[in-house]
Amino acid sequence: MRLRLVKEQTAFDFFEKWKFWLGLSAVLVVLSIASTVTQGLNFGIDFKGGTTIRAESSTPIDVAAYRQAIEPLALGDVSIAEVFDPSFRDDQHVVQIRIQAQDGQEAVTSEVVEQLETILRMIAPDIRFPSVESVGPKVSGELIKSAVLAVVIAIAVVLIYIWLRFEWQFALGAVGALVHDVILTIGIFSALQIKFDLAIIAALLTIVGYSLNDTVVVFDRVRENLRRYKQKELSDVLNLSINETLSRTVMTSATTLLALISLFVLGGDVIRGFVFAMIWGVVVGTYSSVFVASSTLLRLGVTRDWSKPNNTDGNQFANIDA
Amino acid sequence: MLHIEGWKRVVIWATCALGLLFALPNGFYGQVESYNDAKEAGQEATGWPAFLPSGLVNLGLDLRGGAHLLGEVKLEEVYTTRLEGFWPEVRNALRDERATIGAIRQQEGGPGELVVRIGNPEQMDRAIDLVQALARPVASLTGGMTDDIVVTAVGNTLVVTLSEAEKLATDNRTMEQSLEIIRRRVDEAGTREPTIQRQGNDRILIQVPGLGSAQELKDLIGVPALLTFQTVVGMSSNPNGAAGVGNEILPAADNPELYYILERTPVVTGEELTDAQPSFDPNGRPAVNFRFNTSGARKFGQYTTDHVGDPFAIVLDDEVISAPVIEQPIPGGSGIITGNFDVAESTRLATLLRAGSLPASLEFLEERTVGPELGQDSIDAGKIACLVGFAAVLIFMFLSYGTFGIFANIALLINVGLMFGLLSMIGATLTLPGIAGIVLTIGMAVDANVLVFERIREELKTAKGPARAIELGYEKALSAIVDANITTFLTAAILFIMGAGPVKGFAVTLGLGIITSVFTAIFVTRAMVVIWFERRKPKILEV
Q: Chain A contacts of B483, Cβ < 8 Å?
């Protein structure tokens, strides 16, 4: 007996409630943007400049005492947060300290770090500093620029590729889904105030890739079915295609999620944010390739000009198969 | 019919075997690492068979621990210094025509400017001509030749600046010198595989694994290079022998057995050098030309006059670079160092001599320290996560597809092996996000197989017989596989181009993972399915 996540034959009508799904997506997008605009993102030092220090001690950490000790240094905005992770030993207490970029200083001053380390050693004599990272405002400004550029270029390249291989309606559908996924991911990082750093940009682009992967598989089937069932309504063709590929969509999401969840639970706290973004992206990406990409395609319609036999529904690039 | 030609099978399995062979050293990381270190040091290398590949996946700073610095070289400082040095020439040229130009006087100028007030502003054109005549040709941006300075008149002053072409040439020289000095300093610390790279126009990235903190690295780079010319008292093979009062024993740079006994007080120091260029001696052997400033030239001239026939030592950072014999007095303040070097070495030496200390100051824009224990924790956690994720996917695939699931699982194992093989072959660096990339690939790699298997299931309903269904399954799934993976690969490529540091590492594993997973799905699983099918010839197929 085989494990089947999806029945052999499915005939869900994915567009019966398309207004609801597109509406839900629209609401989520608006909420994401609203959260990002009002709350902002919890930028890491990669994008904001500043210093983070990871400190480790065998004695339990008293965040208030740390804060009090650091106060006299007048470093401006200092955030201190204890880090918990199942992989830590019993006597392993970790705290993450973040200091804002100091005014008028491009270069990072190690004196500040040294002072801080000295003070903390007075509270916890066995304290160690497994990682100290500083980024000057100049570099962080550039990083943020190139990160935004990377995401925009990725989406543009994808738009062009899908357009060449399919039709412009497909490209818009796919990109609509991508933008949706990216905005929702940024939104949840803003809503939960999870640290947003360079690695998250990598996760965003991976989500772009993953979501696209899903969308393209569905679209590929749509293209095939459009040729096969020339008389069928577009919505029927879309429904059929999504149903036919549903088993694969669920299987792939499941294996990817299995791998990601094991990384999320066991992979340590350093990359947890990164993995969280990807898990979220896989879920949202799977949803969006069905409900956003296909619904958009349905709204836009497809030119079905079959005057010539075996005419492909794209242009001269549509038939390249390898 | 289902068939794969014999030669194709050979190619497929040979590719897998080769990839796995290259991945093999990573299974014995510590062993192979010490073997490679021994080989690099020229010692007898043991512990790993020499006929096997010994390339390893490098571990990034976030996994191995170490220090990372991004520094910006203040290039403009060099312009100012250059123009300062130019002032005596300008003064002499203008002074000769004092009668027409009037009194001249250097004035405080902005950075990268030499400002001279002219007593007789009506004769400004003449003054500009005089100074412009001092210009030296430099290769321009467009390929032709142009002057190295630009002379303009501002009111009653004359302003000399470097031309754009000269600035560019100076920038490149400054960057090369800085890189050379930093490389030398970091090498001194004897750490493994430091990365010292120029980034963009004026930045230098320095990554040193195994170093305790970024501060240590800064201290290391900050020390100025010290060049001295010293009197040679004698030579010795014993580094601990008695040197005598006022003397010291220093090693020779090119011969580990040889030590020089030198007078401690230098004759001249590198601070008095104004220039050093690679050149050739009269016999056509590579050499280095150097030039002292006035006071250096006087001291050097006097010394060489008194010591013809004696050797004298050129010492850089307490190492004797060479100890030539003074063949004749060198009065003009310039000289030539000959030695047992080739062109590359003479170029390097000239750079080092010019590079007494960093030509311009370095401002640190970014610094990161990761302790080795944190890196180790990350590796351990990553390993466990990989194994668990892997096992989960394997079980899941078996439960879903039975025999075919096993094929996909074997392919997945080969896939991860191939990834490591490729990573080792290109000497890529594995970072923490890179590990995440591998885990993600494990999850996504089965996608191509799933696409095919699902398609075979569908085709079984309509096609004539299992063989045809398998064939159609592969055929029809191909376009979806290709499109889906090309788009993902494009995003990986963009990440690689735009990303920095660890993110690049992630892009590399993601991109390679896509290549290997498509290869394993299209060729390896298929080959297994075909072989299985030929042996069993099942009438009914269950996928």
A: 165, 216-217, 220
